[in-house]
Design a protein that fits this description.
The protein is an alpha/beta fold and 344 residues long. It has two domains: 217 residues, Alpha-Beta Complex (Spore Coat Polysaccharide Biosynthesis Protein SpsA, Chain A), CATH 3.90.550; 82 residues. The protein contains ten helices and 13 strands. The strands form three sheets. Strands 1, 2, 3, 4, 5, 6, 11, 12 and 13 form a nine-stranded mixed beta sheet that branches. Strand 9 and strand 10 form a beta hairpin. The longest helix has 28 residues. The protein starts with a strand and ends in a 16-residue tail after the last helix.
Length: 344
Amino acid sequence: MAHRIAVAILNWNGEKFLRQFLPSVVENSHDVADIIVIDNASKDQSLQILATDFPQVKVITLSHNYGFAGGYNRGLMGLDYEYVVLLNSDVEVTPNWIQPVVSWMDRTPHMAACQPKILDYHRKEMFEYAGGAGGFIDKDGFAFCAGRIFYEFEADLNQFNTNAEVFWASGAAMFIRFQNWKEVAGLDEDFFAHMEEIDLCWRLKNRGYSIGACRESIVYHYGGGTLDRQSSFKTYLNFRNSLYLIVKNERSGQLGLKVVRRLLLDGIAGVRFLFEGKWSHCFAVLRAHFSFYKRLIAVLDKRRRELRYGSTPNTTGRLKRSIVWLFFAKNVKSVSQLAAEDFM
């Protein structure tokens, strides 16, 4: 029987994670969803493992490694589902992880995307970096999560157990209405990897849609499966892509001042890397800025195209204040310490 839900896993040389995590996806998803692996031109034994050990999984093979954004854009092209779940290959899912999310989205037609609660595979009582219990963004475009602000992680003590509207959902386990995916033309391939899901959610929010965190559903993320958290290349992508995010999507006015402020804050981060002896990360910040300047006209062109869509952005989940100031100067280490009036 055909399903209305597809779980789409992007794979690149991930034979270890396919062996380790795909069994949980098959066991806990096959009765309600089709399972699809999109292979980004792997050179390892991934395709052989899929053919031998997982014959029930549909495989879409790509000719090149197109990154996270390009891989999903090409892999999902031509499919026909109501919901698609973007699921990292290093995620362990739990029984009944799909049904609560889809049920909530069914009842909430304006909700375009949603994530489950994402905990750390290695320390299952802790929230994980890539999404926690739902993502937020501050006035300067810095992203943070319920359960994780910068490098401060919280234990899951049931403080985030109620389903909530947030600003962005993690690409590690994102449920999205496929018609909304197609409406915004999927992920922006200029990002290549990291923050492209925040950009996707921000574009949806600018069109008036909502984004959810369904905390009734739980998954466990291994983390660093594609690019290690300490990688200077990841630092480069995060700093560059955060500037792309702001220029493309900011609608609250004074864009120029916001970009200058963000560049200055990035500079402070670069100096901090320097004093910590992290030379490659300091250089990554510089590379990110030069790459941003080089692409600025193209990013502004995308902004102009995006401005045509939607005149009433949904700002729920946007912090009115600076999370950098609150974290480092005011010792705010949890979203629980923020008041409702701190958000738009």
